[in-house]
Amino acid sequence: MNRLLNVNNYHYRRGGAEVVYFEHAELMQQLGWENAFFAMHHPDNLASDWSGYFVDEIQIERSYTLGEKISKASKVIYSFEAKKKISRLIRDFDPTIAHVHNIYHHISPSILQTLSKHGVPTIMTAHDVKLVCPNNKMLSPKGVCEECKGGKYYRAVVNKCVHGSVPASTIIAAESYLHHALNSYRKYVDRFVVPSKFLINKFVEWGWDANQFLHIPNFAKLDGVTPQFAPGDYFCYFGRLSFEKGIHTLIDAAALSGIHLVVVGSGPLDDIARERAVKAGANIEFLGFKTGIELESIVANSKATILPSEWYENAPLSILESYALGKPVIGAEIGGIPEMIHHGQTGWVYPSGHTEKLAETLKMVEDMPLSRIEEMGRHANHVVKEKYSPQAYQQSMAQLYTQF
After folding, report:
1. Per-residue pLDDT tens digits for 86-133
2. Is the pLDDT score of 208 beyond 60?
3. 225 belongs to a structural domain
4. pLDDT for 296-334, tens place per residue?
5. For the segment 163-189, what is each residue's pLDDT rounded down to a tens digit?
6. Does 229 map to a domain?
7. Domain co-membership, 26 together with 174
8. Which of 96, 180, 231, 385 has a Cα-to-Cα distance from 261 of 20 to 30 A?
9. How many independent structural domains does the chain possess?
10. Residue 228 lies in a domain
């Protein structure tokens, strides 16, 4: 039997990378693969038979004693604990292939050399730009940032890119310098899977070999999802309330256009966003964090969803989830977003960070005949079934695995 070792920092559905981590394993299990998991201990983790191999928890933003800080910082840069524990797991499970997702800042890339040493072919999904950017977002407090290009990782410290903290940014910069010197990613990962063509082009622009990458789009889980094509009377944003998501631009555009907006999610800008909406006189309902059927119902009964990102989004699952529910998407023209939205067919794009252009787009859709919006929702649903189905992803990944 083929055995797949799935590796990711968190073992709960924390974000898009974790959703892919779990559902990827499930899809491969359907093809007869046996799964094992390697992650970090965390209070929210799902129960796992493999948790005895997990590494100790690290949270960069948490308060630790001086001794703990030194210990945790060293693990972020290079974890000997992770090397030791994954060696034991490799010995006990004997994986055919390892598929690595997000490992930086917690598990650390130290495990990549260990996997190679034991002869385990390693595939890594690049969910973001960590391969070239210390803070994995190409985002500084000033906005989109490419100042680390050419290995100038000290710029992350200058710009305090991690939590606005010099110490935290120094740790992450040191991690990048070390693994750049060790060639940890280029030397020990056999192939990188990237969900957007934009990110592949960005890596190549920063000096990587295009042959190291394979474009396999993300997928939407379609079973049990019932699309609602009839447009509702509100627009919907669902996601994290944070700076890079363009929340301020969205609030101001909603106020300018006069549309009814429903915001689902939480994050560091939660209180600030609510205050801004009141001051702007925007018609916005903040519903807080929702998930499962409740979230699906809110999205399905909207007119369209909005993705106002102001950073290099890779391949947002929220677009695919909207399509699966029969909703067109208004998305910022940045990162991998334009690849996923066919302007005027499955949604609309506008210049990222441009409040007036977003407001114009919102007003245009608000005034559009409902029959046209429904037609676009149906086309979006067709696209997600044809191009972004679990079966398409499963077949592409199985074909990749046969090469090793």
Report:
1. 999 999 999 999 999 999 988 999 999 999 999 999 999 999 999 999
2. yes
3. no
4. 999 999 999 999 999 999 999 999 999 999 999 999 999
5. 888 988 898 898 999 898 999 999 999
6. no
7. yes
8. 385
9. 2
10. no
Tell me, what CATH number does 141's domain have? 3.40.50.2000
Residues 136 and 9 occupy one common structural domain: yes
Judge if 69 and 214 occupy the same domain.
yes
72 and 152 share a domain? yes
What pLDDT, on the 0 to 100 scale, is given for residue 60? 54
Q: 397 and 383, same structural domain?
A: no
- Residue pair 130/106 in contact (Cβ under 8 Å)? The answer is no
Q: Which residue did the predictor score with more confidence, 268 or 71?
A: 268
pLDDT digits (tens, 9 = 90+) for 57-86: 876 555 544 444 455 567 788 899 999 999
| Banded pLDDT at 2 (limits 50, 70, 90) | very high
Distance CA 346, CA 323 (A): 8
Distances in Å between the alpha carbon of 144 and those of 114, 156, 241, 340?
A: 34, 13, 17, 21
Question: In this predicted structure, what is the pLDDT of residue 284?
Answer: 98
Domain span at 261: 235-387
Q: Are residues 180 and 321 in the same domain?
A: no
Q: Are residues 188 and 58 in the same domain?
A: yes
Q: Do 34 and 78 sit in the same domain of this protein?
A: yes
